[in-house]
């Protein structure tokens, strides 16, 4: 049993670390900006014009976007793990990410005149993918964890085939979508941030209202039914929320894998399975992890800007194999 006070302290420390990491990340790049200069620019005291342009127009929007997307995907993964009853479930492995990406790519390549519908397309694609996986994994006795993984593999393969077909058919338009396919935050500014921010706030608020339901569903179908809860309705509502958070993230920066798997698992080890702490911990840790991945991608390999999605795949793939090896499902 993990102590409540300890869990609360860990969550607060994680959120503080994310804030500190954000300040440091803003200063790193081809032009180094010291922390005092960053703080003076952000909080309105005298600042160099060059620093102000770099911070407000380039680095701060990217840092905030990385943190918001990381929090979104981590919370989505945590909710899906409650719905599926499987600590290995996340938006990537269950096909939600690839489903959303396939629908977004249809608009980006085949119908670019309808780009304003990208968030809706992402949500619909993710919802269809989640519905297929849920339908295949459901049994009268409950949801089979192994079937979730196998169904997710099948859906990912199907969506991957569609993505491959689109890239071949519209190869002349592909350069604009290459970085998006790899989950890159390069050149993402205030427009992308403003697109995601209101949806993210709404999703986070709904997620905190869903904490009690997530705690109930993780106890098992029988216990939840005995408490008078409609298990199927809870699963549907939590799934819709998880897909919504994952879909708006895909719409903004593309496919980011393994954040929804790695982060909730790490959070669970630190603060336990109570969603009262697991959800804010996943949010803070997700923001921190993706921020580190993006900052590392743009600074460690300069002048190259390696997409955060690639770094997360390099880190998350081995971690997933480790969890499989430890039979954490």
Automatic annotation (TrEMBL):
<dbReference type="GO" id="GO:0022857">
    <property type="term" value="F:transmembrane transporter activity"/>
</dbReference>
<feature type="transmembrane region" description="Helical">
    <location>
        <begin position="92"/>
        <end position="111"/>
    </location>
</feature>
<dbReference type="Pfam" id="PF01032">
    <property type="entry name" value="FecCD"/>
</dbReference>
<protein>
    <submittedName>
        <fullName>Iron ABC transporter permease</fullName>
    </submittedName>
</protein>
<feature type="transmembrane region" description="Helical">
    <location>
        <begin position="9"/>
        <end position="35"/>
    </location>
</feature>
<keyword id="KW-1133">Transmembrane helix</keyword>
<feature type="transmembrane region" description="Helical">
    <location>
        <begin position="236"/>
        <end position="263"/>
    </location>
</feature>
<keyword id="KW-0472">Membrane</keyword>
<dbReference type="InterPro" id="IPR037294">
    <property type="entry name" value="ABC_BtuC-like"/>
</dbReference>
<dbReference type="InterPro" id="IPR000522">
    <property type="entry name" value="ABC_transptr_permease_BtuC"/>
</dbReference>
<feature type="transmembrane region" description="Helical">
    <location>
        <begin position="300"/>
        <end position="322"/>
    </location>
</feature>
<comment type="similarity">
    <text>Belongs to the binding-protein-dependent transport system permease family. FecCD subfamily.</text>
</comment>
<feature type="transmembrane region" description="Helical">
    <location>
        <begin position="148"/>
        <end position="171"/>
    </location>
</feature>
<keyword id="KW-0813">Transport</keyword>
<feature type="transmembrane region" description="Helical">
    <location>
        <begin position="275"/>
        <end position="293"/>
    </location>
</feature>
<feature type="transmembrane region" description="Helical">
    <location>
        <begin position="191"/>
        <end position="211"/>
    </location>
</feature>
<dbReference type="GO" id="GO:0005886">
    <property type="term" value="C:plasma membrane"/>
</dbReference>
<feature type="transmembrane region" description="Helical">
    <location>
        <begin position="63"/>
        <end position="80"/>
    </location>
</feature>
<keyword id="KW-1003">Cell membrane</keyword>
<feature type="transmembrane region" description="Helical">
    <location>
        <begin position="117"/>
        <end position="136"/>
    </location>
</feature>
<keyword id="KW-0812">Transmembrane</keyword>
<dbReference type="GO" id="GO:0033214">
    <property type="term" value="P:siderophore-iron import into cell"/>
</dbReference>
């Amino acid at each position: 049993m993990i102590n409540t006070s300890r869990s609360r302290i860990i969550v607060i420390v994680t959120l503080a670390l994310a804030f500190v990491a954000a300040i440091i990340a803003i200063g790193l790049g081809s032009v180094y900006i010291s922390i005092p200069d960053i703080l003076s620019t952000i909080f309105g005291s005298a600042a160099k014009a060059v620093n102000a342009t770099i911070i407000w127009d380039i680095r701060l929007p990217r840092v905030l976007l990385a943190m918001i997307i990381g929090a979104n995907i981590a919370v989505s993964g945590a909710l899906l793990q409650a719905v599926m009853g499987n600590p290995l479930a996340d938006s990537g492995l269950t096909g939600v990410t690839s489903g959303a990406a396939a629908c977004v790519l249809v608009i980006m390549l085949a119908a670019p005149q309808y780009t304003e519908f990208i968030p809706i397309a992402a949500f619909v694609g993710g919802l269809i993918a989640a519905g297929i996986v849920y339908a295949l994994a459901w049994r009268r006795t409950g949801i089979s964890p192994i079937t979730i993984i196998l169904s997710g593999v099948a859906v990912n393969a199907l969506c991957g085939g569609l993505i491959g077909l689109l890239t071949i058919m519209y190869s002349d338009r592909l350069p604009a979508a290459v970085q998006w396919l790899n989950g890159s935050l390069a050149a993402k500014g205030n427009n992308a941030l403003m697109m995601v921010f209101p949806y993210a706030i709404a999703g986070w608020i709904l997620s905190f209202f869903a904490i009690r339901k997530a705690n109930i569903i993780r106890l098992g179908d029988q216990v939840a039914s005995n408490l008078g809860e409609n298990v199927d309705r809870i699963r549907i509502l939590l799934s819709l929320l998880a897909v919504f958070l994952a879909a708006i993230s895909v719409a903004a920066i593309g496919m980011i894998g393994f954040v929804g798997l790695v982060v909730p698992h790490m959070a669970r080890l630190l603060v336990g399975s109570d969603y009262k702490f697991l959800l804010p911990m996943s949010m803070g840790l997700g923001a921190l992890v993706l921020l580190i991945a993006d900052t590392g991608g743009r600074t460690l390999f300069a002048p190259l800007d390696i997409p955060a999605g690639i770094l997360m795949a390099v880190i998350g793939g081995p971690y997933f194999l480790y969890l499989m090896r430890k039979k954490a499902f």
